[in-house]
């Protein structure tokens, strides 16, 4: 049975959608995505969530952040890293995901506008995520945040950044985090069965994963510190919720990472959404399955941050 036969009817209209990360198309792809997500962010209904912009300055570099307040005072917090294959996106990209997390988990979500490849290869994006986490904890009182209840979350490439933050926290080289939410995460640069199988799936496909890592790593060999799955010891990491799609080249690395976390003694919840493709929750956020995902993420975070 082909992946198209397995794709849920609610997503069939996106069957021809592809992510073209080639150099000659990157500018157009960025502009199109940014415009669509900007338009969606402007009309998004956000009852119960206050949204404010801010910035973090480190030397001559300024990182834009967006703060979503949906919790009591002082609020637990989530550092959120947006999707986009390390090459696309900005603060508008996952606005709906940030609003849903803030509202459902009764917390403050802080998203950052990290630098993008290929102009800024690794470790630029991760360095920006680290700056945002350190800033949030250092200014917790000013931000009305409980520094003892901080989680990390990310989607797709943002999932890689969130996973790396959790690894650094466990190693003591980043502020402590109590939970990690990884949705359709990028975790491994190496070949997998799902990357080989899903060579033309909507949203994201196997060839796009190759282009993503090539650009993110600047054509270099992957340093272990850049790739969550290359970590040899996962013991002591924060508990995790990992969610992935059945028809996604990133599926197998999510399954393997969840298995390794459990083997290392890390409390891990894993959900695979059948009939879905990469980015389904952004393509059809009002769809029943997308709402199930948001509810699942919100409940897991609420237990971790308020339990």
TrEMBL record:
GO terms for molecular function: hydrolase activity. Its EC number is 3.1.1.-. Keywords: Hydrolase. Gene3D superfamilies: alpha/beta hydrolase (3.40.50.1820). It is an enzyme of class 3 (hydrolase). The keyword Hydrolase applies. Residues 78-280 form the Alpha/beta hydrolase fold-3 domain. The keyword Hydrolase applies. PANTHER family: AB HYDROLASE SUPERFAMILY PROTEIN C4A8.06C, ALPHA_BETA HYDROLASE FOLD-3 DOMAIN-CONTAINING PROTEIN-RELATED. This is Acetyl esterase. It comes from Mycolicibacterium frederiksbergense.
